[in-house]
Amino acid sequence: MVTKQNVVGRENLLEWLWAFPVIVPLLLILFSYILLPWSWGLMDDMQLLGRSGGVWQCTKDIFAMYFTFGELKWTHAFHCAFFYKIFEDSPGLFHVFKWAEVSAVLFIWGSAAYQLTGRKVSLFLVPAIALSFHYLYDQFFFLSTHETTGLLFFGLAVLCVVKVLFRSAGKNLCFRFLLWVAAGLCLFLSLGAKETFVACGFALGLSVATFYWMARPSGKGYFWGGLLLAAVFVIYGLVLKIFVSASYTAHYSFFDLTRIAVGFKAWVLKDLLNHGPWIVAAVILWLTAGAKKVRYAPAEVWGMLLGCLLYGGFLLVLLPWNTTSYYAGPFGVFFAFFAAIFLSPLLEDVPFKRGIVLVMAALVLNMFVAQYAGTREGTYHQNTQDLWQWIKGNKAFQEAAREKQVDCDGREPSDAIVGHVNRCWNLGLTSFHYQPDIKQASRGEAKFFVHSPRFGARSVDDSGWATVFYSRYWQVYQKEAP
Q: What is the 8-class DSSP label of residue 256?
């Protein structure tokens, strides 16, 4: 005989079992740091390592560097200055620290969902769903990504707002004031991590205004406060575009329809498709587990509204830029935040055995995605270090690099590979010439061509070139004598 106590016990057990699709992929990534030879990456690491002066001087220098690109990144500048100093000689430990940062992000957003739903399962659902999104894993493997810091501080801001609006903390006037101050500070710090979080601040303000407009007249004060917050972020975005935009960001435009179309296609094929398993699961649960019975509390309605606005706003900002790679990482968190709140009450009516099947399916999916990402990035790091060692031992290549006779079809690697090699062995090489087309290199003075399928075309026409170094992610060709 199944008693009420047994049913409650099974429900509690099922809630805790949702921790496994979170813990297992996180441990897989952490163990990869121990088992594989992780080193510095080729994105921004070379520009941030080995800077002279103290933390404050490095912060100013890094901030000035980004400002010349048309970016305002005070939080990211300090974050880089401080932690690149600490881990300057320990890239492996820096990866472990980045793992801890991403884990904290997932816990913070899960806590915000839990505060809104009051259901323990939502605490685990947010990271479980987010860890099924493959672009989120770029945050583990690219040390200099800005999105992690932005998500961390913005998540703290959301948590503060939730406690004021929907939890008992909002009843204490002094504590409520302190929470508003903390929320404002966290929003400020998230903006300083990356400019794309302008969309998130706007979404937060608009969600508060919309929710309390629907609750009029009791929410009149919050309605105007939300509108003011949204307006502040719109104005800040205009200031960035009109007065700060420079070389790197000058071409960003909502009127570049060709680029927007490319971005939208990439989002559909690579981001939306990745959400597919959870979208299918949500539809099935909605149709079978309570489409008529489930009633969402006001806090849950606001949370889902916020999740939709965050995702939609962030997508609009990224469409003219890039909707893939590490840029898309926040999509995984925003989608998970919405989906966790939506699914939490539906899962209450799922039979125990069916719930076990859902947990196992989520675990298998996350293990596959984590293993795929870890293997891909581990191989890439190993191939990159093998390339550095090959350059160290090849005198002909070194001489060609000093004479500016090396072309490369990756823009960032053209500088970063040389920078890391010079930092390790002081070879005095000059940056490679960025040339995306090996046919153009054939007609030029280049003696070597460095190719990566990750940055350039998937294949190259190597006629007239001899392969002198080959790995999955890096190939080097030497021009044959006529």
A: -
